[in-house]
Structures are given as structure tokens and as C-alpha cells.
Specification:
There is one protein chain. It contains 14 helices and 14 strands. It has helices at residues 2-33, 108-115, 173-190, 205-221, 248-263, 275-296, 302-316, 320-325, 332-338, 370-389, 422-431, 450-458, 464-468, 485-501; strands at 40-50, 53-67, 73-84, 95-99, 118-120, 135-137, 147-152, 160-161, 198-204, 227-233, 346-347, 355-356, 436-442, 470-475. The strands form three sheets. Strands 1, 2, 3, 4, 7, 8, 9, 10, 13 and 14 form a ten-stranded mixed sheet that branches. Strands 5-6 form a two-stranded antiparallel ribbon. It has a two-stranded antiparallel ribbon with strand order 11-12. β2 and β3 form a beta hairpin. α2 (108-115) crosses α10 and α5 runs antiparallel to α12 (450-458). The chain is globular and about 70 Å long. It starts with a helix and ends with a helix.
Length: 504
């Protein structure tokens, strides 16, 4: 009897133990699968000399959890902020929210290239120096004028969806606008910055986001901005889509082709004397004879076609025969390969000052963009070293500098038509008559050509008030014009002047 009871006791104990182990394993497994996100950040103090003045500031690197109104975790957004120390009245201290584009780009470019108190060390032209790469004090930072917050949208940088959340809910124009808008609202609220003058600055697709955000922040949260700063702008995608039936890009890219040919000394002597006057000639030809010729299509006569081909060849540095074979329509991918083909060299898309060498010099398109190759390594290595060594922030996830993980990107509100957020910007300006816009353009930018930006803003609205509130500036560099030191200095001064004129 005692043996029977002992046996039953042992079996029961073993069964309970097994259940406990199973429960523990299940709990551990669930914990691993669904970890709870937390706001985590590190704060460090620093100082930098800008314009002969020492600026003390606090840097914060960390993540902010974005939740829905029911408290459900949706995403973890990584950010880095720089707040000037010793400011007693925040209502007089501007705060600027910054991001880059892609879609799929982190905020590293504007952060370590233009705005932040530290910047990547590169050559004066923007050329890569030998690794390892380093950062130095940025004497061109706008930190004296504004606190800075750099935002990495979901799947860029260290930002990720919460466990179990479908990434697709963040991957689109509307979705991205709402997520970044929620981050800005939450940051502004938690850090008591509603009374501060507020700016946003975006680059490339970041300008698309910025225009959409300005409208969204006003409509959804009643947040009225003082200014929007657009670096290498694209608001109307029709201006940059080389597709059958859309002749607009051929017209709008032409002046940048001319600038590129001028830089590489491929134009006739009379056109090589002065870039500004040469670009005026290219712009006049583009809006006049060239536009009329493309509009005629097959009705264009042989003599007139030959005249246009001659004009295009003169302004692009390409041969007349090549221009004729393209039906007077030189697409960007062909131009960057053809211009210096006789030297077996290609030119960059982001910055056409840069040159690359392909394996196949007879190909139709380049194998890589030499201007992106020049910045990818320095900015990646510098950011990863800087965040850990100087900001004391640790994260073992890959820092996504520029990723394809965000694709496909949704433009569902613009299905069956070109994306155009210029109207969002116009609406924001209409409802906020004090909202001002700064636009910075690089003459050698073949990703978002300056003449395409002119076209967009010339069609922003037919009330002259809109144009009067837009400041348009140009620089002798490319998409990231700040990699060129003289352009960086000029851009910084232009931004400072714009911000001062946007705050009463």
C-alpha cells in the first residue's frame, strides 16, 4: 500500500514538474517572440565652437515607443537630439525636426553632413578620404540658432516595428507621414516645445515627406510651423519620371545636363566661360524651342528636328548623331553613361561632378553611382563609431543607412496618377499665412534637378503671395551639396538667414 502511494506521489510530482518546465519554456518562448518595447536613451554633454562662440549642449540618443490610442505598441523610433544648455525660455528657442528620404534612408546625411554639431571629414569637393572614417566639430552647424532632432522612420536606422506588427502599415506616403507626425507631436509634448518656433527640414524624398507633414500636422494636431526647409526637392514626381508619353523630364533635366557638361569641360569654348550665363541659355532653349518641338511629336519637320538636335548636342556635350538616335529625348541613365564614354568613364547621378569606371564601357547605363559610392562608406562608418563612442548609445541591430527593406512603398492616395504633394504644401501655406519655405538646389544634382524644382514652385499657386514666401537658393554641387565645403558654408548662412526671417 505504501509502495503504491509512493509511486502515485512520484508520478504526480514528475507530472507537475514537467508542466512547470513546459510552462516556463512556453513563457520564455513567448517573451522572446513578443518583447515589450521601452523608451530607452542615453544623455551626454558636449561643447562645440561655432562662429567663435562656444556652445554647450546635451545630446540624447535613443528610441521612442509609438503607441495607438489604446496603448498598443506599434513601433520603436530611433532619434538623436541636440539641445543647447542654459536656455531659460524655450518659447524663444526654435526646434528643428530633420530627416532624409529614400524612401528607406536614415537621417545620417543631414545629421553628419550639414546640421549637427559633428560632421564627417571628407575632401573639399566631397571626395572620399582613406578609411577609417572620422567625425570632427562642425563649424557650420545651425545649433546656435536651433535645437535639433534627427528622426529615423521605421526600418531605417535602428527604428523597427513592434513585435507582431506588420511593417507594411508604415511603408507608404500616407502611413509614413502619420508615423513621423506622431513622433513629432509626442516629442513636442513630452519636451514642452509647443510654445517654441518649429521647423522641419527634409532632403530628397524627405522633401516629399516634409510637404505632406506640414499639411498633416496642421490638420490633425493643429501644429503650425514657422518654416519648412527643402534640400534637393521633389514634390511633383511627374517632373522626374522618364516614361513613355511623359516628355516633361527631358525638358527639366536639360539645364543639369548642361551644368554637368560644363563641369567636365565638354561644351564649346563660348559656353565654358561662365556657368550662370550658360545655364540661362539652356533654360531658355528648354522652355522655348525644345518644349515646342517635343509637343509636336511626329509633326516635327526634318529641318526643325535637325535644328533641335544641333541645339541639344551643343548644350549637352553629346554628339548630334547620338541625340538623333534618342529621338531628341536623352534619358538620365543614358546621359551619365554617354557623356564621358570616350574616356571609359561615367558620371554620378546624385552628384554629376563625380566619375566612375565600369567593367563594360560599351553598356547603356552605369553599373553604380560613383557619387553615392563616395559617401556611403564614410557616413556609415562615421555614424556607427560616433553613436557608440561619443553618444554612449549601444544597439546591436544593423543601422540601416539606406535600405530596400521598405519596398514596395505605397502611394495608394495617388493611384493611376503621378505623386504630387505640392498641393499639400500649398494648402498648408494657405491656412498658415506665416509659413515660409526654403528650397536648396544643387546645379549638379541629376536625382532632383533644380529646373524641375523651379517648374514645381512656378505651379504651386497662382497667387503671387506663395512665391514671395519661398526662398530659392542654388549651389555648385550635387544632391548632397553640403559635401562640397564652399557650398556647405553658403548653405549654412542661407539657412540661418531664412530661420531668422521666419520667427517674429
Amino acid at each position: 500500500m505504501h509502495k503504491l502511494m509512493l509511486t502515485l506521489f512520484l508520478l504526480t510530482s514528475l507530472s507537475a514538474a514537467a508542466q512547470n518546465v513546459e510552462t516556463k519554456e512556453t513563457t520564455t518562448k513567448e517573451t522572446k517572440e513578443k518583447p515589450k518595447l521601452e523608451d530607452k536613451s542615453t544623455k551626454t554633454t558636449h561643447s562645440v565652437v561655432i562662429g567663435g562662440q562656444r556652445i554647450s549642449y546635451t545630446a540624447t540618443a535613443g528610441t521612442m515607443v509609438i503607441r495607438d490610442e489604446e496603448g498598443k505598441q506599434k513601433a520603436n523610433v530611433f532619434y538623436i537630439s541636440y539641445i543647447r544648455d542654459g536656455v531659460s525660455d524655450l518659447s524663444k528657442r526654435p526646434v528643428t525636426f530633420s530627416f532624409n528620404g529614400g524612401p528607406g534612408s536614415s537621417s545620417v546625411w543631414l545629421h553628419l553632413g550639414l546640421l549637427g554639431p559633428r560632421r564627417v571629414i571628407m575632401g573639399d569637393k566631397g571626395e572620399t578620404l582613406p578609411p577609417p572614417y572620422k567625425v570632427a566639430d562642425n563649424e557650420y552647424s545651425i545649433l546656435p540658432q536651433s535645437d535639433l532632432v534627427f528622426i529615423d522612420p521605421v526600418l531605417t536606422g535602428y527604428s523597427r516595428p513592434a513585435s507582431g506588427e506588420d511593417p507594411k502599415q508604415f511603408l507608404g506616403l500616407k502611413e509614413d507621414t502619420e508615423l513621423v507626425g506622431e513622433f513629432i507631436r509626442l516629442y513636442t509634448t513630452r519636451n514642452q516645445r509647443w510654445a517654441s518656433p518649429k521647423f522641419i527640414i527634409g532632403e530628397s524624398y524627405g522633401t516629399t515627406r516634409a510637404a505632406s507633414l506640414a499639411d498633416y500636422l496642421q490638420e490633425r494636431h493643429g501644429m503650425y510651423l514657422n518654416g519648412i526647409m527643402l534640400i534637393s526637392s521633389i514634390l511633383n514626381f511627374q517632373t522626374a519620371r522618364f516614361e513613355t508619353g511623359n516628355d516633361l523630364p527631358y525638358v527639366l533635366f536639360l539645364p543639369t545636363y548642361t551644368a554637368t557638361a560644363w563641369y567636365h569641360k565638354r561644351l564649346a569654348p563660348e559656353l565654358q566661360r561662365d556657368l550662370a550665363s550658360t545655364l540661362k541659355e539652356a533654360e531658355a532653349f528648354a522652355l522655348g524651342p525644345y518644349t515646342l518641338a517635343l509637343m509636336k511629336g511626329s509633326e516635327l519637320g526634318e529641318a526643325e528636328s535637325a535644328k533641335i538636335a544641333s541645339g541639344l548636342a551643343r548644350l549637352t556635350g553629346l554628339s548630334e548623331e547620338y541625340v538623333k538616335r534618342t529621338n531628341l529625348r536623352v534619358e538620365i541613365g543614358r546621359f551619365v553613361k554617354e557623356l564621358l564614354r570616350d574616356r571609359r568613364v561615367t558620371v554620378g547621378r546624385l552628384d554629376s561632378r563625380f566619375e566612375g569606371v565600369d567593367r563594360d564601357a560599351a553598356g547603356e547605363r552605369y553599373e553604380f553611382d560613383p557619387s553615392y559610392a563616395a559617401i556611403q562608406g564614410p557616413y556609415t562608418g562615421s555614424l556607427l563609431g560616433y553613436v557608440r563612442s561619443e553618444l554612449n548609445y549601444e544597439n546591436d541591430l544593423p543601422y540601416e543607412i539606406l535600405t530596400d527593406r521598405v519596398r514596395p512603398w505605397s502611394y495608394r492616395d495617388f493611384e493611376n496618377r503621378y505623386v504630387n504633394v505640392a498641393e499639400n504644401l500649398r494648402q498648408a501655406m494657405a491656412q498658415n499665412p506665416d509659413l515660409k519655405v526654403f528650397v536648396g538646389n544643387g546645379y549638379y544634382d541629376l536625382a532632383t534637378p533644380y529646373f524641375a524644382t523651379h517648374y514645381t514652385f512656378n505651379h504651386l499657386g497662382f497667387d503671387s503671395n506663395y512665391q514671395q514666401r519661398v526662398t530659392m537658393k542654388h549651389y555648385e554641387a550635387g544632391h548632397m551639396m553640403y559635401v562640397h565645403i564652399p557650398s556647405l558654408a553658403k548653405l549654412r548662412d542661407d539657412l540661418v538667414a531664412f530661420m531668422a526671417g521666419s520667427v517674429r
